[in-house]
Amino acid sequence: MRNATAKISVAGKTFLVDPFLAKKGTYPGFAGTFNSQLRNPLVELPMPAQAIMKGVDAVIVSHTHLDHWDGGAHQFIPKAMPLFVQHEADAKLIRGQGFTNVRILGEDTVFEGVRLTKAGGKHGTDEMYAKAPLAEALGEAMGIVFHAPGAKTVYVVGDTVWRAEVDRTLEKFKPEIIIVNAGDARMVGYSGSIIMGKDDVLHAYQLMPNATIIATHMDAINHMTLSRKELREHVKQHGIGDRVRIPADGDILKF
Fold it and tell me: At the N or C end, where does the chain have fewer CB atoms within 10 A?
């Protein structure tokens, strides 16, 4: 939909992942990050938030950074809707915002016939996590694997850099669809990224020859340093366009 917000339908059930439904420019840029003078989100949603909520059976919040969850600031998401989070700390925060059906997503969570698995990762480099204040700000994030009989397996990698946890998830589940948050978000004063970028899209393509790679989390938040345009050029340069998709906001992809 925009940024990391996506509607994913598997085996007849529709999940809204990381809903960030604010109007353009609602929030200040993230302090300590690239282009923090810009206000978030940088662009409007491709359709009204009410339309995005249509048909949603459950919400999944990979972590509670503002650009993945602003549900406490508006009334678009019904308070009783099933809502999955990574751990009790996030559940407590969201329950405190009035949501009454918050659940912890684990290794083997089943929702109406769809199996959901929490996947590991790290929202930045080891250098960043060695600094206590920054480590606290970056916090924890999860990936999610969707699998159901007769459906393609979908892996939302989430806000992480490429780590052994990602390799283990790919090896275990062998997903046919891999959604990569590829905006290459950057902190001021650090050389590494806090999420994946164009080289990770290439790596996923090379590592998983039977998978389609979907690149998201670009062009909407102040500290993203990779644009869709630049990624399209990278994809063309490396000749990997047969299995890489870079959807525009509001695009529908079917597999």
Answer: C
